[in-house]
Structure formats: C-alpha cells, structure tokens
Amino acid sequence: MADNVHVAADIVARVRGAVGAALGDSGPLVLAVSGGRDSMILLDVFARYFRDRVACVATFDHGSGAAATAAADLVERCAGELGFAVRRGRMDSGAGARREADWRLARWSFLNDVARESGRGAAVATAHTLDDQVETVFMRALRASAARGLAGLYAKGPVVRPLLEVSRSDVAAYAAAAGLEWVEDPSNLSRRHLRNRVRLDLLPALERSAPGFAAGLLELSRRAARLRDEVDAEIDRSIQSSVAGDTLTVARADLQDYDAAGLRLLWPALAARAGAVLDRRGTERITQFTINGTAGARIQLSGGWEAVLHRGSVVLRRTRGADEPADVLPLRGEARFGGWRFRPARGGVGRGRWSAALPADAALSVRPWRSGDRMTPFGSTVPRRVKGLFRDAGIDAVRRRGWPVVLADGEIVWVPGVRHGAASEHLSDQMAVVFECERHDD
Question: Do 375 and 425 belong together in one domain?
C-alpha cells in the first residue's frame, strides 16, 4: 500500500511540475474542458494548485449525441462544485453542421468569445498532451509538411497547453491516483478518423519496428519550432511588411536579398501573418513568382489566395473563403457561412452596411451572390444588378467571389457591407429582426 501511495504522489508531483513550468508568467486562463479524461485532469490540477490562474471553465456540447451532452453535464457539475465560474455552449442544431471541422470551428468560436468576454487578456488553455503532439507531427509528416508545420503544437500561439509535456501514460496514472470521473467519447475508437488510426495502429506498429520513433518525432518538432522562431525574428528584423484585414503587403526590395532557399523559409511565415497557409506547391510557386515575376502579374494559390506583384511590393490576399459554401443556409440565429458570421444584433442597427433590419415574418436565408442577381436598393424602386452595387462599393471581381447575399422569402434584401435593400425601408421594431455580419476567418 505504501508503494502505491508513493507512486501516486510521484505522478501527481510530476504532472504538477510540468503544468507549473508550462504556465510561466501567462495571464488568466479559460480552461477548455470537454469532459474527457485529459481535460478533467486539467480541471483537477488547476483546482488543486493553480486556482488563482483560472478566469472560468468553458465546455462545449457538440450536439452529436448522448455522450457529448453527458460530458458537458459532468464538466458543469464538477467545475461548479469546485467553485469555478462555468460557461457552457452548444452547437446550433439549425446550422446543419455534421463534420468534425464544423464542430471544431463552432467550438473555437465559442472558446474565443468566452476568453474575450472574460477580459484581462484571458487566453484559452487546452488539455493537449505529449502524445497529441507526436500524433500531430506524424500526420503533418504524412502530408509532407515543411518545417513550419512540423513544429506542431510547439509553435508559439495564443493557446496555452499546460499538459503538453505530460505523456498519456502519466495522464492515466494521475486520473487513477486522483480517482477522477470522466466521459469516454465513443468516436475515439472509430478508425474512420485519421488521428485514431494513427494513435491505435500506425504509431504503435512503427514504435515496435523502430524503437524511439516517437522520441525522434518530438526532437524533429522541437527543432522545427526553433526554426519558426528564428524565421519570425528574421522577418521582424529585416523585412518590411504590413497586414490589413486579409491582405499582406511585403516590400519587394527586402525580398531581393534572399535566394530561393531563403524565400521558401520566409514565405510560409509571412503568409501566416495574414492567415494564409501555404502548402509545399504554393510555397514553391510564390518563391519563383517573387524571383521571376514582372510588375502587374498575379498567380492563384490554394486555399483561396492570390499573389500580385507590384513595382515596389508583393501583395498576398484572399480571393474567397477557404471553405466557401455553395448551398443556401437558413438564417434563424447565429450562423457561419464560409468565412462570414451572422448573428442577431443587440441594441439595434449600429454598424452601417454591416447590419440590417430584416422582415421578422419572412423566411431568411443566406447564399453566395450569383451572376445576374438583382436587388432593389433602399430608397429606390428600381432593381439593380448586385454586380453594379459591388462596383459602386469599390469591391473588385476577386474580392466579391463567394460574397454572401441575404434573402427574405427568396428575394435579396441585403448585401452585407455593400447595400441595404428596400425591404427594410418601412419596417417597425415589431416587424424587424436585426442581424450583424462580420468576416470571421479563424
């Protein structure tokens, strides 16, 4: 019995020490707790040893079934009993999203909103472990990621990962020692997901055939993370660049000091500052474009981006949402539409063309604009082509791709950021529902 107590105490001390080292001088944290084993350990460690660092606990129900709801219920109960403020979110059942990517987008939108509302510069803290890092790096290696991507979860960013140097075996031992309760996600055993196949089959097989394989991946990712830091420092020191929205402008003269190998390192880091992710092919294309392109030329890049070469600069800008939707989406509450977010406004219309009063008794929907679309503008009785409204607003052909239009009973009544329709002209407060729209490319 004494030996078991000693082992338990050793595990708890090891996890506590790793978390303390990872926190450093970080500010207040929003603990992202899903109800699974790893996240319930995160909650327990902070409740025992780092309580003063917690702004609140946030949990998100994906609405995917009984297990997801039970997990959120568990978090809400346990965090409340521990004396933490708890925020709970849930996937909008009307959004129609069923893919893992949709769940992730909704979850992170919720977590970021909670952190922002918590104030004091609060950051989100997740329960990713050392094994999660191994899996992430391995999957990126399968996709032939370059050095920047191979840093994986070691890359510096706004998310805090206190358990990142804790192994999954230590997590299991801590859970047993602390007698924790958690909910198993049934999807964790489904081999339909690549990460599960990597976790359950590929990595164990490789470790058996080549002992130390996982340790080698970790060392590779640490070296890649150091390289990322060095490249970012070089950009800050030597390259003049600026970001406005989703447009990056880089001084062409500063890039001329680098050969192709240097540009292949610099461009993914530069692109990331505007939210763009360059794959290997895109990196090579923009590298050669920088060296050989002439003023006025442009190239298309994957993910809905393009590069344009001017006399004194190279401009990288978005041409459309990377996940641009093609279908009509009902607009009944907060909704995501590609890189756009719609939500009911508080306190009436206050953002000009980015908010609109819409008929409350109509069936509202949103879709991408189409060639030939027409709308009767506010203050007019004559329908106009939406293409002309874009031109009046200074939105060129590239930027307007995938731009949303809002319909009431099938008729266009609002082009966000461009023009209101006549349908809102005579609406009273009782007849209207106010929506806001914003670009949201997270």
Answer: yes
What φ, ψ does residue 349 adopt, rounded to 5°?
A: -80, 125
Q: Tokens 């060129």 label which residue?
A: 396
pLDDT surpassing 60 at residue 39: yes
Asked whether residue 229 is domain-assigned, the answer is no
180 and 39 fall within a common domain: yes
Q: Same domain for 24 and 88? A: yes
Work out the average pLDDT over 150-161: 92
The total number of structural domains in the chain stands at 3
Strand partners, 61: 90
Q: What would the pLDDT profile of 257-306 be if each residue is shown by its tens digit?
A: 999 999 999 999 999 998 888 888 899 999 999 999 998 899 988 777 89
Q: Is 144 within 8 Å of 27 (Cβ atoms)?
A: no
pTM: 0.68
Q: Are 60 and 185 in contact (CB under 8 A)?
A: no
Same domain, 263 and 341: no
> Is the domain of 306 the same as that of 429?
no
Q: What are phi and psi of 308, to 5 degrees?
A: -125, 130
CA distances from 43 to 54, 58, 128, 184, 323 (A): 10, 11, 13, 16, 34
Task: Return d(Cα 87, Cα 306) in angstroms, integer.
Answer: 39
Contacts of 54 (CB under 8 A, 6+ apart): 28, 29, 31, 46, 84
Dig out the tokens for 45 from the structure.
């460690």
Q: Calculate the dihedral angle through the C-alpha atoms of 183, 188, 190, 194, rounding to the nearest 10 degrees.
A: 160
Residue 122 lies in a domain: yes
In eight-state DSSP terms, residue 201 is: I
At residue 107, what is the residue type? R
